[in-house]
Design goal:
- With 228 residues, this protein is α/β, with parallel strands linked by helices.
- It is built from eight helices and twelve strands.
- Strands 2-1-3-4-5 form a five-stranded parallel sheet, with helices on both faces.
- Strand 4, helix 4 and strand 5 form a beta-alpha-beta unit.
- Helix 2 packs parallel to helix 3 and helix 6 packs across helix 8.
């Protein structure tokens, strides 16, 4: 999962970083609501962990603004407030789940995974299909025109992102942040992985699906309106 944490307590953020990155997830952190909203605009996240008590713009307002902007990514709200009225306010602002501090990190991870599964449409969305290109995100298997394709892990992660976002063009920065988080690679790393992906899923076939849209980014589409 690619997780955005909006939380003003550095100790909590460090704890979440240690746990989730140790479990193979990628974490970004914003220390206030305004920064959190900017992160959402700049990147693609699977889920947001949102603290209710934030300086300036509180979690309720952040969540409301996300929904007003049409952002439908899952939001789990964290708070020390545990009354029914507080939970109703949190869910009413657009949050998808609500967890009271202190909490178990295992439970938090399980809740986040459930939200992500629900947002992706459950089991059916683990099978992605575009014009004969198939990706099983659970089995990590790729096929095109019935032929098995074996991809390196990073290239596979890029493919999943582009297929989930298809036919939308995904910017270079979005891809880099999704794959590498804050530890961005050198300038040529993404280009190398894109070339690798193109060699595997396009070159042996008649029609190219992986498009480079100049000045914007990349997409996977069977349409012919992107510049390669």
């Amino acid at each position: 999962m690619y997780i955005l944490v909006i939380e003003d307590n550095p100790d909590i953020i460090e704890n979440l970083y240690d746990y989730f990155e140790g479990r193979g997830h990628t974490v970004d952190a914003a220390y206030d609501g305004s920064s959190g909203l900017e992160f959402v605009v700049q990147n693609i996240y699977d889920v947001v962990i949102l603290d209710l008590m934030l300086p300036g713009m509180d979690g309720l307002e952040v969540c409301e603004k996300l929904r007003e902007q049409g952002r439908d990514l899952p939001v789990l709200m964290l708070t020390a407030r545990d009354t029914v009225d507080d939970k109703v306010l949190g869910l009413g602002s657009g949050a998808d789940d609500y967890l009271v501090k202190p909490y178990s990190l295992k439970e938090l991870e399980a809740r986040l995974q459930a939200l992500v599964r629900r947002a992706r449409g459950g089991v059916s969305k683990t099978q992605l299909f575009i014009a004969g290109l198939e990706l099983d995100t659970m089995a990590l298997k790729v096929k095109r025109a019935g032929q098995n394709i074996s991809l390196p892990p990073i290239t596979l992660k890029i493919l999943e992102l582009l297929m989930r976002q298809s036919p939308r063009v995904v910017s270079r920065l979005e891809i880099e942040r999704y794959v590498w988080g804050n530890d961005l690679p050198g300038t040529d790393s993404l280009r190398v992985h894109i070339n690798t992906l193109r060699n595997f899923i396009d070159k042996p076939f008649d029609k190219q699906l992986l498009k480079t849209v100049r000045g914007m980014g990349y997409c996977i589409s069977d349409q012919d309106d992107a510049e390669i």
